[in-house]
Amino acid sequence: MTVTVLGAGSWGTALAILLARNGHPVRLAGRERDEVEAMRQARENLRYLPGFAFPDGLEVAWDGEPLPECGVWIVAVPSNAVREVMPFLTGAAPRAILVSKGLEPGSAKLAAEVAAEVRPDADVAVLSGPNLAVEVARKIPTVAVAAARSLESAREVALLFNCGTFRVYLSDDVRGVELAGALKNVLAIGAGISDGLGFGDNTKGALLARGLREMTRLGVAMGARVETFMGVAGVGDLFATAASSLSRNYRVGRSLGEGRSLADALEAIGQVAEGVPTSAAAVLLGRRHAVETPIFETIHLVIHGQLTPMQGVAKLMENIPKPEGFPTNG
Fold this sequence. Notes:
Elements: E1 3-6, H1 10-21, E2 26-30, H2 33-42, E3 58-62, E4 72-75, H3 82-85, E5 95-98, H4 111-118, E6 123-128, H5 133-137, E7 142-147, H6 151-161, E8 166-171, H7 174-196, H8 201-221, H9 226-229, H10 232-243, H11 248-257, H12 262-269, H13 275-288, H14 294-303, H15 309-317
């Protein structure tokens, strides 16, 4: 099946390599013409995923030119660009797999909601999980979750990606899988802040446990299922992102905890850290759905310089303890 991957960052490139290794003809579409030409010449993505040669069957395209029809479109751009690239999908009722892990800035909409607004004719699925791009390219065993309106549609996504090192589970909880993938990035920044301050695993474990509780309750209030957040797309992705130096969001948080500015932290990683804009969207969703999110709110304030990291810790430690568990609010 011919596949076009929109977005030539590290994640889009890793998925293009994986799909080409699986024997699919793949077109990797990048935004910058100079970078596209560089990838064509080098046969690898020297900027975002160096050291991994493109397999035979992987071609590079510039998305400034009309893209021909294909069997499946992989939308691997940052969440703030999903609305912009959905019109690039050619053909009637195109099949699209969204792999962005964030919420649209301003509206706080999920990528699937944005896609449905722009291309209501598209057959949309999402793919998410503990998937660090470098590890996927290295063929390190990895799993993910494909979510679609039907399990049969999710199974078709899984068949596209499944191989000896990448296995895909199935779900029809599209909202839950997307929310888990987006919200865990904010918590990963919080985990990095904790480590940057020099705190131990006790602190980070508590932060992530309470943060998981907040994002699960928010998800349930929005119609998602608890078990989604307890599975690969939730706990699995949270653990990988909040504990790995390969995670952009973790590295941003660590830099903030060590006293660097947000601008310096983002410049150092050279790519989008979805948790930064998603922090504001998470706070907005919490208020919209009447769910208390003190950890997300505090991380948001620290990210944007309204609290120092130590002031954020003090703020959370002063909160009155509430009942543990998911049914109650707070």
